[in-house]
Amino acid sequence: MIDDFYKRIEAEYDVENHSWDLFSISGDLSENDKALVRYEYFALNNFEADSFKQEIETAKKPLIDYFTEREQQAKSPHLLARYNHFLLYITRNNSYASKAIEYYQQVLAYYLSIHKQGFNTLHFADTLECIILLSTKYKTKTNELKAQINTYLYDETISTKAKTFILEKVCDEKCTLFKRIELSDYPQQCIDFAATENDPNIKERLLKMAVLFAQKVSTKELGKLANEMLGDLEYQYIQPIDEKNIAISHMNENHYKTNFMQS
């Protein structure tokens, strides 16, 4: 039965979009196989969660032995990315970092190929964030990653929505991949993307990032332009006052309150 479980996760497990049902067959397994499924559960979920720490620490040696073997058996890049990341986490052996990044890159390419379907833009962005964090922490292929991100931003086959998610990962304070001077083109890029975007939510997010990037690189004029464009976008939401319809006044007031709390 454990072989059936391995075949199933090989075929169905996705790093960012997996089902809890994959781990619901333990009732048909021996006690030893149930323990192995539990090991897989650690590696294929949020293994850094506090709720797992004690159990992982207690089983550290058998976990390392198990996943060292599984890493040689598995074929799916989704599994191999997680196995190597997990081994990096529990062994503190930096050699697993480059392997984890290599397989996450394959996962990233998979999500990029289907990024216009369902929630795959989000999965693509979350995988990219994982690569950024690993690359910067372990100083692995950072220049290649920066070039890769810039290539994405100029790729016309990638949606503006996906580029917005990419820019948000770069703009996040956790991201230390780029030096300030390397962000000098980003305020204008955000403004250019916003100027041709029809989705008001995406447009607003891009303009807010333009302001933040402008602050990072001390480009006051572009920051001012982005703020003016945000003001114009804000104005589009406001409805003309109608003394006979008090609901409009409430809608306008609620809109101002919402945006004040978000700003």
If you had to describe this structure to a student in words, what would you say it looks like?
The structure is a single chain. The chain is mostly helical. It contains 13 helices and no strands. About 2% of the residues have low confidence.
Brief synopsis:
By secondary structure, this protein is an all-alpha fold. It has helices at residues 2-12, 31-43, 50-58, 60-73, 77-91, 95-113, 120-137, 142-154, 160-171, 186-195, 200-217, 220-237, 246-262. The longest helix has 19 residues, at 95-113.
Largest sheet: none
Derived structural class: mainly alpha
How many DSSP-defined strands? 0
User: Could you spell the SSE succession in H and E letters?
Assistant: HHHHHHHHHHHHH
Cα distance, first to last residue? Answer: 54 Å
What are the low-pLDDT stretches, counting only 5+ consecutive residues below 50?
Answer: 247-252
Proportion of helical residues:
over 70%
How would you classify the quaternary structure? single chain
How would you state the average pLDDT, rounded? 90
Radius of gyration: 23 Å
Question: Shape from CA axes?
Answer: elongated
Report strand %.
under 5%
Number of helices: 13
Tags for this entry?
263 residues; 13 helices
How are the elements arranged and paired?
Elements: H1 2-12, H2 31-43, H3 50-58, H4 60-73, H5 77-91, H6 95-113, H7 120-137, H8 142-154, H9 160-171, H10 186-195, H11 200-217, H12 220-237, H13 246-262
Helix pairs in contact: 4-5, 5-6, 6-7, 7-9, 9-11, 10-11, 11-12
